[in-house]
Amino acid sequence: MSITFNKPPSVAFLTGQFTAENVIKKVTRSGDLSGVFHDIAAWQAIPSDTPIYEVEMLNSLQGEGELYVGMTHLHPGRVGNEFHMTRGHFHQRREQGEVYFGIRGSGLLLLQNEHRKAWLEHVSPGSVHIIPGDTAHRLINTGSEVLSALAVWPSIAGHDYGSLAQGFAARVVLQDGKIQAKEVQNG
């Protein structure tokens, strides 16, 4: 019997970069985030091709029991008084959870259940975030460098952005020089 030795993908924990073949990369630009930021005039003032975040994923098998592994790199900055953030989503298969690991930078993970109850967790290098099923999630970069988070989730989970058409129940803003969470009724 011959046993082979395979070199698995790896991640550089200082930069959050994958070392692997067939890494799938997607850039989300300001123009892709219509309806995400509260201050529409400030959002429109940013060139639509400005990168807000990148997602890298390992090319993985899809199906029941399979997992995706991805890295989000969220740039620092603000739109009006709101910090840069990801679009955020529920999973199409609501019962599916996800795990985030803080790799570099600092920020917040905004979580919200289907009853619009929201809460925040601090994201920093080494932090571990277990996102339960039935929970929408969004990364927010409150720091001055790129916020990178490694994520692991079931490949069958899917993404549901439509259920958040009214937005999240909270917004994170810079007000009077302090990071504050503001509760909102509709987006």
Task: Describe the protein.
The structure is a single chain. The chain is mainly beta and 187 residues long. It has a single domain (10-183), classed as Sandwich (Jelly Rolls). The protein is 3% helix and 45% strand. The protein has one helix and 15 strands; from the N terminus they run βββαββββββββββββ. Strands 3-4-5-13-8-11 form a six-stranded antiparallel β-sheet, with no helix packed on it. A hairpin with a 4-residue loop joins strand 9 and strand 10. The relative contact order is 0.20. Keywords: Gluconeogenesis, Glycolysis, Isomerase, Metal-binding. It catalyses: alpha-D-glucose 6-phosphate = beta-D-fructose 6-phosphate. It holds the Pfam family GPI. This is glucose-6-phosphate isomerase. Its EC number is 5.3.1.9.
Task: Spell out the key features of this protein.
glucose-6-phosphate isomerase, six-stranded antiparallel beta sheet, 187 residues, three-stranded antiparallel beta sheet, mainly beta, isomerase, Jelly Rolls, RmlC-like_jellyroll, globular
Q: How do the strands and helices of this protein lay out in sequence?
A:
Layout lengths: L9 E3 L4 E3 L3 E7 L10 H6 L5 E8 L8 E8 L3 E2 L2 E2 L14 E7 L2 E7 L4 E6 L4 E4 L3 E7 L5 E8 L15 E6 L2 E6 L4
Antiparallel strand pairs: 1-2, 3-4, 4-5, 5-13, 6-7, 8-11, 8-13, 9-10, 9-12, 14-15
Multimeric status of the protein: single chain
Helical content, roughly? under 10%
Give average pLDDT, whole number.
94
Q: Which structural class matches the secondary elements?
A: mainly beta
What is the CATH topology?
Answer: Jelly Rolls
Radius of gyration, in angstroms, nearest whole number: 17 Å
Assign an overall shape: globular
Name of the CATH architecture: Sandwich
Contiguous uncertain segments of 5+ residues: none
Number of helices: 1
In CATH, the homologous superfamily goes by the name Jelly Rolls
C-alpha termini separation: 60 Å
Tell me the fraction of residues in β-strands, as a range: 35-45%
Q: How can the largest sheet be summarized?
A: 6 strands, antiparallel
Adjacency order of strands in the biggest sheet? 3-4-5-13-8-11
Instruction: Please indicate the count of domains.
Output: 1
Pfam families: GPI
GO molecular function: isomerase activity
Pathway: Carbohydrate degradation; glycolysis; D-glyceraldehyde 3-phosphate and glycerone phosphate from D-glucose: step 2/4
Catalytic activity: alpha-D-glucose 6-phosphate = beta-D-fructose 6-phosphate
